[in-house]
């Protein structure tokens, strides 16, 4: 069974980001939403993760503007593929006003 979690960290402050809205687009086009907690994490998608292509949108503009006064990215989309027996998928996002990075975490 596949599971999915995410984590948002601000590389400028070195801290997790609470309150980032997330939109997950499933392979069938359906969307689910969530918001990062005080530790910058979210994993409560309430769905079954079948194999396919997913897109996770991080709505970071409001946070970056209120915290840093600048945001080059109104949102960040990360598209990834889940395999049928992939297990746990973790999509961390490292953000700053002018850059971001992501990878498949554990």
Short descriptors:
single chain, 106 residues, mainly beta, 5-stranded mixed beta sheet, 4-stranded antiparallel beta sheet, 1 helix, 8% helix
Q: Any overview of this molecule?
A:
By secondary structure, this protein is mainly β. The protein has 1 helix and 9 strands, in the order ββββββαβββ. The strands form 2 sheets. Strands 1, 2, 5, 8 and 9 form a 5-stranded mixed sheet that branches. Strands 4-3-6-7 form a 4-stranded antiparallel sheet. The protein is elongated and about 40 Å long. The protein starts with a strand and ends with a strand. The mean pLDDT is 96.
Which spans have pLDDT < 50 for at least 5 consecutive residues?
none
Largest sheet: 5 strands, mixed
Secondary structure tally, helices: 1
Q: What overall form do the CA principal axes indicate?
A: elongated
Q: What is the β-strand count?
A: 9
Strand content: over 45%
Q: What is the H/E order?
A: EEEEEEHEEE
N→C terminal distance: 15 Å
Q: What's the mean pLDDT score? A: 96
Structural class by helix and strand composition: mainly beta
Radius of gyration: 13 Å
Based on the structure, what is the oligomeric state of the protein chains?
single chain
| Helix content estimate | under 10%
């Amino acid at each position: 069974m596949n599971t999915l979690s995410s984590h948002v960290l601000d590389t400028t402050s070195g801290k997790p980001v609470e309150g980032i809205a997330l939109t997950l687009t499933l392979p069938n086009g359906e969307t689910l939403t969530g918001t990062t907690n005080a530790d910058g994490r979210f994993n409560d998608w309430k769905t079954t993760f079948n194999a396919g292509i997913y897109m996770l949108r991080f709505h970071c503009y409001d946070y970056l503007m209120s915290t840093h006064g600048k945001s080059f990215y109104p949102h960040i989309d990360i598209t990834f593929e889940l395999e049928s027996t992939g297990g746990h998928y973790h999509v961390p996002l490292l953000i700053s006003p002018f850059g971001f990075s992501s990878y498949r975490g554990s």
